[in-house]
Amino acid sequence: MNIVIFDEHPAILDSVSNFFSQKEGFRIGGIFSSKSDLVRYMNTYHPKIIITEFMCSDEGGLSWVCQIRKINPSSKIIVFSAHNPHLEYNLIRSGADAFVNKKSTISTLHNIIVDLCSQELEYRREKPVAKYLTKKERSIVLQMIEGATSNDIAQKMDCSIHTINNQKNHLIKKFNCNTSPELVAKLFRMGYIKI
Amino acid sequence: MKPIRLVLYDEHPIITDAIQHYLSQYYNVKVQKICCSVEDLLNHLKHHQVDIIITGILSSDEIGISLISQIKKLNKMAKIIAFSSISSSFTIQTIMEAGANAFVSKKTGIENLYNKIMEVNLKEKNPCTNIKPTVKLTNKEKNIINLLKQGKSSKEISEITCTSANTINNQKNHLIDKFCCSNSNELITKLISMGYLEI
Which of A90, B57, B97, B186 could be stapled to B181 by a disulfide with Cβ–Cβ 3.0 to 4.6 Å? Predict the structure, then answer.
């Protein structure tokens, strides 16, 4: 089975690919640390199994999982990440087949993949649901986390403070939050912005 | 020459495994112990002599960067290499100020780690020069931050903790000052990137 791995950390890529290249029945199609390379590969080869991190330094998060699913409707997507198991439900809704925490051992990852592959594809899928950040929203958020006030942002983006406040409130609603610190924490947790 | 004694700490076994596997090809370094929890690590340091500690920074134990000063307290001579996925330059600076001898980004691959080990090992042993004490969070502060993260307003927090809203605002402002921030959004960001707050 053709397997590809995406992660920004070479240590992870090395050990996962090492492990699977020794297992029978798997063939490493490629290891990727850049999203665009992986997208290009997937468009041509449609690998059977995709192991991916969803937090990455350029725009990542749930929308990345969504994107992979769109390109590969019938692949098995396994999210292998250090981040919060509470997100599992959201990840599955964005199109992942399974979530494996990086704190577990690599043989757990293997077992889950074997399990997934033994189940025949039943077409369970609803349309993936993930929220996207628009470019403008993103730039507002990035300024917010640096401690900029609405006033600062308005001056920088050359628009009214009310517009910024509006967009902020819209974001807070979009992610079901009550306050902006909560929004910031949530965006980190969901991988839309990275440390 | 005796091999350099190493201790590895990371919450993710896959990382420590990879490091150990990579370093096993070198005879001049020896992995003495692999720890998966802070407790484990500190315990080991209490009882053993170690040359270099390779450690992750963000853990779910919410001790963040104060981990480094704790290590230093237990073992003054040991050198610390932070191996982390953090990329914010502010955090890296804080890590170094807290007493780490080197920082290696997880994004750059393990080969770098070996070079850094050699480099750090050669450096003269002049520990504890102008190390800034690291900030610690009190239990009360942790509690407030967690509530803040959940989207509670000062008023709601004051109701939960049975204090006045003014007290909470005071404590919030104190925290914002303590971490040199300008508002609570920035505070949350900083706390997450310094490992005080779990994502």
Answer: B186
